[in-house]
């Protein structure tokens, strides 16, 4: 299964040159097999070409130092972190990483979080101390895990009634019923990824149509993947404002119901207040009407336009 997933990731890696990181835990399970080892070798040799960072994690260092793919990884790695090692493998590690006697002893007696960080040819002793929050999240100590307060199924699945926006497929039938008791309704829409219509459980804000509310929420959700600073307005301001490199990009959702005079006032306000802005029409037949007033795109173009703003390099 790891090999199949890795094959898929490799295919996606080649599709663009965006910055990304591939983390392979339990790397020994791949490196101990000849076929997968050669595949790892090719990834190691080509990942930089596609702006991919590669991080392999394993408890069995011998699988790294005794395999051709592991040696290729070491030859192409900028950083190596060695934690406590077993006596049975320490001599191979000393030879591979050219460790001193003191470093050898350090790795044999290292406490939790202690080890040696190798950057290029520089060796440094290191001690990693997890914060209380990190420790609670990552610990595998069964005593500590057992001492945690029990979270009931009800608490874990408790719904936020104020959220206003859920995909129906992510909910149980009981949760759908619970939301509908709180004023939510079920409606079908096509999101920014296109494809077929999908059912959502929504509760629009006051005097807002389902179509307008859905567009606002689904675009907000996508924008937050790239920018933590996204504003949603319920007043006469722009529906969505995305902060990007010191600028504010405004998005106005239009369902075709606004009168022309209202639109002219809106355009004047957007031009005065924001660095850049555009209309998003929920119905393609309205595109021409709004295009005469300003830049206009359809829902199927939102991803491309937002990525242009949020991922372009600063001049």
Walk me through this protein's architecture.
The strands form four sheets. Strands 9-10-11-12-13 form a five-stranded mixed β-sheet. α3 packs parallel to α5 and α6 runs antiparallel to α7. It contains 15 helices and 13 strands. A hairpin with a 2-residue loop joins β4 and β5. The relative contact order is 0.06. Helices cover 41% and strands 20% of the residues. The radius of gyration is 27 Å and the shape is elongated. The mean pLDDT is 84. With 315 residues, the chain is α/β, with parallel strands linked by helices. It folds into three domains: 2-146, 3-Layer(aba) Sandwich (Rossmann fold); 159-203, no CATH class; 206-311, 3-Layer(aba) Sandwich (Trna Endonuclease, Chain: A, domain 1).
Task: Name the features.
315 residues, alpha/beta, Rossmann fold, Trna Endonuclease, Chain: A, domain 1, 3 domains, five-stranded mixed sheet, three-stranded antiparallel sheet, 15 helices, 20% strand, elongated
| Approximate shape | elongated
Strand order of the largest sheet: 9-10-11-12-13
Query: Strand tally, please?
Result: 13
Named at the architecture level, the CATH assignment of the largest domain is 3-Layer(aba) Sandwich
- Proportion in helices: 40-55%
Give the topology string: H per helix, E per strand. HEHHEHHEHHEEHHHEHEEHEEEHEHEH
* Count of separate DSSP helical elements: 15
| Oligomer category | single chain
Between the first and last Cα atoms, what is the distance in angstroms? Answer: 43 Å
The top-level CATH class of the largest domain is: Alpha Beta
Task: Please name the CATH topology of the largest domain.
Answer: Rossmann fold
Largest sheet: 5 strands, mixed
Instruction: Determine the CATH superfamily of the largest domain.
Output: P-loop containing nucleotide triphosphate hydrolases
For the record, the count of structural domains works out to 3
Pick out the low-confidence regions: none
- Provide the gyration radius in Å: 27 Å
**Mean pLDDT value:** 84
Q: Structural class of the secondary elements?
A: alpha/beta
Strand content: 15-25%
